[in-house]
Structures are given as C-alpha cells and as structure tokens.
Amino acid sequence: MKRCVRGTTLVGVDENVKTKPTGFLLGNNYPNPFNPTTNIKFTIPERSEVRIKVYSSLGEEIITLLHEILGRGEHNVTWNGVNKNNITVPSGVYLILMEANHFHKTIKTVLLR
Q1: I need a surface site. Which of 15, 66, 75, 88 has the fewest CB within 10 A?
Q2: What is the pTM of this model?
Q3: Which of 69, 71, 89 is closest to 79 using CA atoms?
Q4: CA distance 48 to 66
C-alpha cells in the first residue's frame, strides 16, 4: 500500500490495483549478467501464441524456452544456460527473442561462467 501524505494529513491511498495489460511487453531479464539462471518477464494483453527463443550472438538458435498459447497477463520464463540438447553453453552474449501475434522484440543477456 502506498500512501500519499501532505504534511501530517493523509490525502489518498493507492491500493496497487492491477490493470489489464494494454500491449505486448518483453521486459529486461534479471539478473543480467547471470549465472546460473536468468528470469525473463513478459506481458501479453490478450490470449496469444507466444514463442521465446534464445540465440547466440552469431544468430544460431540455442533453445526454444517457450512455445505455448497463454492467457492475458504477466508471465515469467527461466533460462538455465543450456541449449536444446541440455548441454551447458559457454559464457557470452545471447539474444532473447519474443514473438507473439505481430509483436517481435529482442533483448540481450550475458552469461558469465
């Protein structure tokens, strides 16, 4: 709860009411740099098919973290630094791509071993 105070008089209360998402959003992953895992937060405004993939800095697909139809709201997926064969990938810069409907966004992350 957040209170707005002017002097010693309470003038309002913000109950942190959640509103409906109005657009697609791929936030930053955290921690970044990471070892051994990183969390990727994203928001979708409507039921959508969502794909989240990790690529090397050379454009090679490393792993598909998510390929599902999800409901509206905030979501989270975790990457543990392995490829699609469950083999640990080396330290480096990786690209995280989110695709949903006509939305495409890529963010960078750094894996430090």
Answers
A1: 15
A2: 0.81
A3: 89
A4: 12
Name residue 47's amino acid: R
* Rounded CA separation 110/94 (Å): 6
DSSP state of 84: T
In this structure, the dihedral spanned by the alpha carbons of residues 56, 60, 64 and 70, taken in order and rounded to 10 degrees, is 90
Strands 61-70 and 9-14, bridge-based pairing: unpaired
Give the pLDDT of residue 2. 45
Range of lowest pLDDT (9-13, 28-32, 34-38, 72-76): 9-13
Please report the beta strands in 7-113, taking only residues with DSSP state E, as ranges in sequence order.
Answer: 9-14, 25-30, 38-44, 48-56, 61-70, 73-79, 92-100, 103-111
What domains sit in the chain, N to C, each tagged with a CATH number?
Answer: 19-111 (2.60.40.2550)
Say what the alpha-carbon torsion angle 89, 90, 91, 92 is, to the nearest 10 degrees: -80
